[in-house]
Amino acid sequence: MARAFLVLAALFGFAGVALGAFGAHGLRGLLSPEYLEVFQTGVHYQQFHALALLGTGLLALHRPGRLLAAAGILFGLGILMFSGSLYLLTLGGHKLGLVTPFGGLAFLLGWLCLGLVGWRLGTSA
């Protein structure tokens, strides 16, 4: 899983930079300020969680486990659901209902899993 998480972190990070630049330069004037802010929120959450996925992948190289795998999967799903739904809303006007909050919940659960991994590291030495 470590390799997959590291590759996904790089892809999500790359896409986040590209989407951020596109939003800042290509969408200004095409979207309302409110929609541009929603788009940038998607970019910010994508970037933060690409870094979380990177950290998860690096940790998985040394301490693989189910909780860590769950954290990485949840971070990836969160990016797709949360950020992806915001991109679809702003670029295509597609409202996906509960997809955005479920993406946020995936982020929260990913952080919870990662926190539990950290907690257990202190007791397994």
UniProtKB/TrEMBL annotation:
The keyword Membrane applies. The chain crosses the membrane at residues 68-90, 96-119. Keywords: Membrane, Transmembrane, Transmembrane helix. Coiled coil: none annotated. It comes from the Bacteria. Its main location: membrane. The keyword Mitochondrion does not apply. GO terms for cellular component: plasma membrane. It is found in: Membrane. It holds the Pfam family DUF423. It is a multi-pass membrane protein. Belongs to the UPF0382 family. This is DUF423 domain-containing protein. The lineage of its organism: Bacteria, Pseudomonadati, Pseudomonadota, Gammaproteobacteria, Pseudomonadales.
